[in-house]
Every structure is written in C-alpha cells, then in structure tokens.
User: Fold this.
Amino acid sequence: MIDALSHVNWFAVLVASIAHFVLGGIWFAGLVGKHYAAALGIAGQPQQKTGPLFLAGPFVCGAITITTTAILLRALGITTYSDALPLGVLVGVGYLMPMTVTIAINPLFPRPFAYALVNAPFFITGSLMSCAILVALS
Assistant:
C-alpha cells in the first residue's frame, strides 16, 4: 500500500478534487438547493452567510476521499475506464452512500432519508467522475 501511495499522480488528484468541488457547487447550489434545504429543515429561512470553512471543508474532504481512491486504483493496478468506473460505483455505493445515511440518521436531521436521497447521487457521481479523471491523467 505504501508503494501505491508513492505512485499517486498528485496532479490528477488535484484536478479531480477541483472537478469534484465544482460538481458540488453545481449540485447543491443549482440542481438540488431547494430539496437540500427542505431535507435539512431550513427551507424558507434566510440563507446563512458562509465562511471559509464552508468552502475549504468540502474541498479538503473531497481531496482526501479522492486521494484514497487514487491509492486504491494504484494498489489494484487499475489503468482502464472499464475497471475504474466499477471501482467508482463500489466506492460511491459501498462507502459514500452509507456514510451519508449514517450521518443523516440523528435527531438533528428532520428528514434523514430525504437528505440521503439528495446527497447520495452526488457522491456516487463524484466518485465515478473522480475515477475517470484519475485514470485519464495517469
């Protein structure tokens, strides 16, 4: 695994991280913004002012996930889209989607499954996109 880490294409990780961040902006601000607010129970409330953590946090967390995926791609010897995309689905459906549901199932989320339905497709799409970018640039 250490050997796989030493062969990660960091430029590809950066490009995939930026693309994932942009996808998040499009997804949450443009495509599902109203549904996201409803799932959080804040629909109709004034939008809160966002700080640097609002931007840096998702970028850093996405970059960590993408780095982990890049390590898995290297460790498994995956170099083609036909192998990378199933890994993207596996990571998205097997790790990221259940994590989203787990986060939402707490008393602070009034509509946990609505939250998961809004978020899970983003994480699956982001995982697929990231795998494709990582393979394309490696």
Observations:
- The CA atoms of residues 37 and 45 lie 9 Å apart.
- The chain has a mean pLDDT of 94.
- The chain has one domain: 2-137.
- Residues 2-137 form one domain.
